Request: fold
Amino acid sequence: MKKICITGSLHWDIVVETNNIPKKDETVKGSKVNYLFGGKGGNQALSANRYGSNTYFIGRIGKDNFGGKIFNILKKSTVNIKQLQVGPEKTGMSVAIVDKKGNYNATIVSGANLNIDHKEIVIKKDTGILLLQNEIPEKINLIAAKKAKEKNCEVWINAAPARKINPKLLELTDIIIMNKVEAEFYEKSLPKSKLNKITKIITLGSKGLKAEFSDGIHKKIRAFKVKVVSTHGAGDAFIGAMASYRLKGNNIISCLHYGQAAAALHISSKIRHRDTITEKDVLDLIIKNKR
Reply:
């Protein structure tokens, strides 16, 4: 099986739980705080790795306490981190507030993620998918995508958070993944002639997702019904699982169902139990919902 390369962000996440997310100028009482490994790149790497893919990661941390915590967690996984860069900058971090319904708001501070050295990026020849996000500079995404195409590798972009995308990067992209809000932004800001050549996957939360393929075919997939604990990190769980399943030779529709099932298990599990979810759990959920 080919490898998956995730080039992206690493954050140390501070997640505060409360009954209600505060409004502007409002202070509310929190009930719990969690300190978690994060960043879209890091989360997607651990998700892909959890579901059996041969994963390697390219990104950057600082020589600080947060960076040390991130390094130790990656070291305990089987993700290849030989291309993890360490610099003098502060490690990226985020703060999220989660309410009792599982909804959340978050703010990120990019730190070292903004200083990834493109000269050190090596895309291995047996890489099947390069997975990118918008939490690192677009220059890095473009350089990594060019190197991936030289190795006949698919390029997937999780276009979050929403920002303008260089048309040159779009030309190298096979699949773009975004949520409903991001999709609305890109419909207005990107040329349709470019978007129409790319498979677009639009996640809709509890309403599932829709896929728009470059051949004009559209497909809607319902979400799995589960009791939500927290939606924080659901998108990353979905993308990593989907990419892992794709590398095993499965068709894209099967991969979408697989990713949805992985995300459903993620949001319905307590945070401390999420790293114990297995491929068997995902397949069991799919089979259960076919009955």
